[in-house]
Design goal:
single chain, 157 residues, alpha+beta, five-stranded antiparallel β-sheet
Length: 157
């Protein structure tokens, strides 16, 4: 597969060697965003109502785990995906929500490359298995994920 020059990207499969760690930046979680996401996608009471949240295991209003995933996806896009020859993903193999994320928290993420290989059936596609670590302003892990990404192999000249 040959990418036209106008679609040239900074990162291709070769740019993701095993052991690479990429810091992905951070974002601060707002109450408004927690309520908006929960209202549309995860309307459980502890994500929408202070009294219900206080009576829950979370003890106060918390972001949906899916909201945390979505914020992490944005950090991934801004951190490397939108400047890469990404071809999608066959899925996430492991996802863990370790601690609640609350309004006012600042979450940061990093991606670590665990494995990297070219597909046998499609030698123009490289597979990268990664682990994403998401942590709060205190350095406490709030979420981890592992999964695969597919990237174009840089065209050889």
């Amino acid at each position: 597969m040959e990418l036209p020059p106008s679609s040239a990207k900074r990162y291709y499969w070769e740019d993701f060697p095993v052991g690479l760690v990429i810091p992905l930046g951070s974002t601060t979680v707002t109450r408004e965003a927690v309520l908006a996401f929960a209202g549309q996608f995860d309307p459980q009471p502890f994500h929408l109502d202070d009294a219900a949240a206080e009576a829950s295991l979370f003890k106060k209003l918390s972001a949906s785990g899916w909201h945390t995933c979505s914020m992490t996806m944005r950090l991934m896009c801004d951190g490397y995906l939108n400047d890469s020859a990404a071809l999608g993903s066959p899925g996430v193999d492991e996802l863990r929500w370790l601690k609640p994320v609350y309004p006012g928290d600042t979450i940061s993420a990093e991606m670590s490359v665990l494995e990297s290989r070219v597909m046998n059936s499609k030698p123009h596609v490289g597979l990268v298995r990664s682990r994403w670590r998401v942590f709060n302003q205190d350095g406490a892990d709030v979420m981890t994920m592992q999964g695969w990404g597919m990237f174009a192999v840089r065209q050889r000249t």
